[in-house]
Amino acid sequence: MTLRLATLDDTAELWRVRYAVTENKLTPGRIGDDELHAYLQHYGRGWVIEQAPAPQLRIAGFAIGDARDGNIWAMFVDPAVHGQGHGRALHDVMVDWLFAQGLTRLHLGTQPASRAEAFYRRAGWTPTDEGLDAHGDKRFELTLENWNRHA
Asked: Could you please report the per-residue DSSP string of 57-85?
């Protein structure tokens, strides 16, 4: 396994992983390459986990964080490799980097009662009082103080 920064050359694999997930599904075409590239190049940073050897599965998962406001824009692992620690590795490097940018609070939305919700709760995230957002996602936050205690 190799954890590295995501590049524009990863675009096709990022979409492959994103559309492979069984929860927090995204309708193809709702978000395009331009928006993805903006998050990778201008708004924040992304990371990928590469499988080794990779005869068919090159990127096992990815995470993208927005340094402007601390939004976790995307974090997904291919269902074929769930449970191998890829999500936690991606999460931790992204959260550490976002807090290193001077942010003190991060936020995200995820499908209620999903594997992702359970994952984020285990990682120290807490639900906000905002309820569900316009996409039906439950809102969570992670403060620097909670991260320092939890990490």
From this structure: --EEEEEEEETTTTEEEEEEE-GGGTTSS
- Euclidean distance between CA atoms 71 and 49, whole angstroms: 20
Sorted by where each starts, the structural domains of the chain and their CATH numbers stand as: 2-150 (3.40.630.30)
- Distance from the first to the final alpha carbon of the chain: 22
- Per-residue pLDDT for 131 more than 70? yes
Distances from the Cα of 115 to the Cα of 9, 73, 79, 102, angstroms: 29, 17, 11, 29
> What six digits make up the tokens of 99?
């807090």
Q: How far apart are CA 97 and CA 78, in angstroms?
A: 23
The pTM of this model reads 0.91
Task: Report phi then psi at 143, rounded to 5.
Answer: -95, 160
